[in-house]
Amino acid sequence: MTRTLIVIGHGMVGHRLVEAVRQRDATDAWRVVVFGEEPRPAYDRVALSSYLDGKSAEDLSLTGQDVWDDPMVELRLGTAVTGVDRAARTVSTADGSVVGYDALVLATGSRPFVPPVPGRDLDGCFVYRTIEDLDAIRAAATEGAPGVVIGGGLLGLEAAGALRRLGMRTHVVEMAPRLMPLQVDEGGGQVLGRLVTDLGLTVHCGAAIESIDGDDRVRSIALADGTVLDAELVVFSAGVRPRDELAEVAGLERGERGGFLVDEFCRTSDERVWAVGECAAVQGRCYGLVAPGYSMAEGVAEQLLELGDGTFPGADLSTKLKLLGVDVASFGDAHGQTPGALEVVYANNAAGTYAKLVLSDDARVLLGGVLVGDAGAYSVLRPLVGRELPAPPEQLLLPAGSGVDAGALPADATVCSCNNVTKQDITTAITEQQLTDVPGVKACTRAGTSCGSCVPMLKTLLGECGVVTSTALCEHFPQSRSELFEIVRATGTRSFSELIGKHGTGRGCDICKPVVASILASLGHGHVLDGEQAGLQDTNDRFLANLQRNGTYSVVPRVPGGEITPDKLIVLGEVAKEFGLYTKITGGQRIDLFGARVEQLPRIWRRLVDAGFESGHAYGKALRTVKSCVGNDWCRYGVQDSVSMAIRLELRYRGLRAPHKVKAGVSGCARECAEARGKDFGVIATEKGWNLYVGGNGGFTPRHAELLAADLDDERLVQLIDRFLMFYVRTADRLQRTSAWLESLDGGLDHLREVVVEDSLGIAAELEEAMQRHVDSYTDEWAGVLADPDKLARFVSFVNAPEAPDPTIRFVEERGQIRPGPVALPMPAFATQEVSS
Amino acid sequence: MTWQPICALEMLPPEYGVPALVQDRPVAVFRTHDDELYAVGNVDPFCGAGVISRGIVGDRGGEPTVASPMLKQVFSLRTGQCLDDPSARLPVYPVRRRPDGVVEVALP
After folding, report:
1. At A682, which CATH number?
2. Which pLDDT score, from 0 to 100, does residue B24 have?
3. Domain end point (choices A305, A331, A347)
4. Which residue from A517, A511, A592, A516 is spatially nearest to A558, judged by alpha carbons?
5. Which of A494, A477, A485 has its CA nearest to residue A657?
6. Taking a C-beta distance cutoff of 8 angstroms, is the pair A154, A326 a contact?
7. What is the pLDDT of residue A46?
8. In this structure, what CATH number is given to the domain that contains residue A827?
9. pLDDT tens string A74-124
10. Which of A61, A174, A84, A59 shows the shortest CA–CA distance to A684?
């Protein structure tokens, strides 16, 4: 018999409850009716600020079509619940409907707290909670004008970051004597204040608001000490209050400080009514973080489905955040409230870092800590809370927690708190599944897949398990590809022999030679077939065409952006006909000509080069195609000229050698006809400029590109792509796609954005220069071979019979064109065949 | 044993290979960095295509090698043995350099 579960509230926690029930409810025991007050389904409120970086409401959404398609779920959005009749077991809504329930879960969340100061209702005053709030703030923000955030806690700093991004002169007013008073201690707060001030924000701590003043809209804010701050916009982020209005209506008890009072099972005094998330006062205490809310939702789902006891285990309030680009972490008893607790502090004012450990009275057990400026040690320290210290505290506090190794962690210590994965879970997976790298550990255990702060620890654990994550390129070079790149760049090395003589052993192989060839080519060291370089190239680069399964090659001329004249189209047809080639339109808007023999390649190129074509690099680990839609010249919907941009980008980056082939796309509007988000870098036009996405494609494991920067003009777009590509070319591993590279970066997309957009490493100018050198030195490789008799002499079927066709090549016909035929020669000797003959 | 001239040594740069037709057999001739010459069958036993001469020359633990450009199996240039799969081997041919600098291959 199907029963009805009503969930009031479709925020992150309400949605998690629905998911948890639906995933485990094998017998469809519960029909779920969800009431949401907001007009849209649940979205990632924790990532709300990224909405201002160009993420769309859709990007943030937590629901997919499956929720709408699920016949057991009814989502009623824009519907406020006004009444609960516990006796009749019904809820009633503002639009007058009444729905009966067998179980009711309150997930109404919380509302921003607006302190009762005069003037708080003036135009220009906002809260920071919903997508609609951000739309309103964005519309009201004026670049260069003063904006004030009231509240210097976690959310206040988020809001301050948002105003700063909108170009406002931003002030933060905090009543406590330091920023983030709940999470960090005085010393940490001071360092944090200094780092935030360095970013151009003005911080007023220990300051109370007297009034907000203006005529029809906000003009200034008066502080209790007499200071008056100009303000054209005010954002209240002074904490949240549980949304517990229904307690009265339903006759349910409240906690002392608000919230629906529930027991450790999240159950109210009515056994059919639960409360979860920020509106729940679990044994009197409200939690303003999403993780405890999720664990409450999971627990209630277990109870509803009778799968476990579903107790709320209590919350780990540890946090690690990057606010305004500043690392802040706090864990365990961060404020040293345990009786007799001792503190060890390491502060480095010069570097802007602060670290504190809270220890038991005998200085042996770690109770908690605070890290500001550099939270690198967080992933090691947090799992150690409640355990004996594995090393002297001062050693643990030194930068990056260099003193501790993973061996110090007990097996049951939680390494990934987002997904509740212990050290033991990880080491077992590594040994039993024979995992050899971090992506493998992520896939098998889910560790490191949410916030990513434990990724460095996963690397260490792989090492602990004896997995040698050697970065050596091959037996000839102990260095990684990126190290070799830096050696070649720094020493000006121009040949493989010189490099292996000084930095390697032996004579190289098919692994290291193409890598070095690619590095030399990236740095613009001449034609790829010059001198010794010819012997380093993989066959595709050696013959500047793409080796196919029967030993013939395919030839792909460049068609920038996919735009081609009728005359050129005719030439391609004529060439294909003359040489009897198979033709196919590729996925990247090219025409591929297959079946060319080595000795035919120069003659085919001659025809193409004479007709104005050049090499399309379809053979290389290089930039391949920049796909485009038709753009605003022809398309009714296009908002920018995607064709011109695609051509510009393709011509700019043509010939660029990279660790893996690179594809790109430019779409003229959000309809995405060029499928730009499925590319290594993708550009999508909006009315406000270009949005740049990176790290898509992914090969075997397809991946959508992620937004790196939004609303760019042409010049800024090209500048950021220059930096992105060159940074990738320099630092990626051999054959590592941009997607895997991005995943392997410590700090992921955020780190990439810091380096590429904000220039945190100070290398942006250098990357741009390197790209400019590439652009300036580009020449067509096909034309280069045609002009050089020595290079041409290598394009023979047999050196002693240059025009004799290779007898292993045979074609048959299919659908009016050639395809490779069965192998003509008897297969050469396999050792086993010799034995039997 | 009849020796057949293939090409002048200059046609064969160090750590490079060339394809040749010796009677009717496709042969790949290589010159290593220390000026040693090697000749093996040009047909890749894993795919049947005549591509071995286009492979990258190098060494594995000191053994001179060539890697097939098709699916990258590595073969010893001295013995023709595939070092990645013991069941496959390339035929090996005698090769020498005449005093006038011409490279010759013999069929046994």
Report:
1. 3.30.413.10
2. 85
3. A305
4. A592
5. A485
6. no
7. 82
8. 3.30.70
9. 999 999 999 999 999 999 999 999 999 999 999 999 999 998 899 999 999
10. A59
Instruction: Find out whether B53 and B40 touch, Cβ atoms under 8 Å.
Output: no
Q: Is the dihedral of CA A580, A585, A591, A595 positive or negative?
A: negative
Whole-angstrom distance, CA of residue A549 vs CA of residue A795:
19
- The backbone torsions φ and ψ at residue B84, rounded to the nearest 5 degrees and listed phi first, read -100, -15
**Is A137 in the same domain as A187?**
yes
Is residue A374 a part of any domain in this protein? no
Is A830 within 8 Å of B87 when comparing Cβ atoms?
Answer: yes
| Domain tally, chain B | 1
Mutate to test the interface with B, among A509, A512, A795 (most CBs of B within 10 A): A509
* ipTM of this complex prediction, to 2 decimal places: 0.96
A451 part of a folded domain: no
Residue A204 and residue A174 in contact, taking contact as beta carbons nearer than 8 Å:
yes
The total number of structural domains in chain A stands at 5
Tokens, residue A637: 């919907």
Other Cβ atoms closer than 10 A to A78: 12
Encode pLDDT of A129-181 as tens digits: 999 999 999 999 998 999 999 999 888 988 998 899 888 999 999 999 999 88
Residue B64 maps to a domain: yes
Among A221, A241, A261, identify where a domain stops: A241
Q: Do residues A406 and A464 touch, judged by C-beta distance below 8 A?
A: yes
Q: Would residue B18 count as lying in a domain? A: no
Nearest Cβ partner for B20 among A513, A799, A832: A799
Would residue B20 count as lying in a domain? no
A801 in reach of chain B (CB within 8 A): yes
Residue reference for tokens 């098919």: A510
Please give the structure tokens belonging to residue A836: 């039997």
Residues A14 and A104 in one domain: yes
Establish if A599 touches chain B: CB-CB under 8 angstroms: no
Domain boundaries, position A820: 538-620+779-836
Q: Are residues A96 and A52 in the same domain?
A: yes
Q: Assess if residue B81 is contained within a domain.
A: yes
Residue A835 near chain B (CB below 8 Å):
no
Q: Please say whether the dihedral angle defined by the alpha carbons of residues B51, B53, B55 and B59, taken in this order, is positive or negative.
A: positive
Provide the residue type at A325 as one letter.
Answer: G
User: Within chain A, what is the greatest distance between any pair of CA atoms?
Assistant: 103
Parent domain of B88: 26-102
Question: What is the residue type of A129?
Answer: R
In terms of Cβ atoms closer than 10 Å to its own Cβ (0-12, 13-18, 19+), residue A271 is exposed
Confidence at residue A373, expressed as pLDDT on a 0 to 100 scale:
84
Encoding tokens for residue A502?
């000084």
What pLDDT score was predicted for residue A531?
Answer: 85
- Contact of A743 with A733, CB cutoff 8 Å: no
pLDDT, block means (10 residues), chain A with 837 residues: 93 93 90 93 86 82 82 93 94 93 96 90 93 92 93 89 90 92 85 88 92 91 92 92 93 93 94 95 88 89 86 76 79 86 83 86 88 81 82 68 58 76 88 83 78 73 79 90 91 92 94 94 85 91 95 96 96 96 94 96 96 95 96 92 97 96 95 94 94 88 89 96 97 91 85 92 93 94 94 92 86 92 57 35
How far apart, in whole angstroms, are the C-alpha atoms of residue A64 and residue A79? 20
| Among chain A residues, CA nearest to B44 | A828
Nearest CA in chain B to A550: B49
The Cα–Cα gap between A263 and A167 comes to 46
The residue among B12, B43, B52, B73 with the most chain A CBs within 10 A of its CB, best to mutate, is B43
Please indicate, yes or no, if residue A456 is contained in any of the structural domains: no
Q: How far is it, in rounded angstroms, from Cα A827 to Cα A462? A: 44
**CATH number of B83's domain:** 2.102.10.10
Does residue A449 lie in a domain region? no
Instruction: Give yes or no: residues A221 and A263 share one domain.
Output: no
* Residue A635 marked as a ligand binder: yes
What's the rounded Cα separation, in Å, for the pair A4 and A816? 63
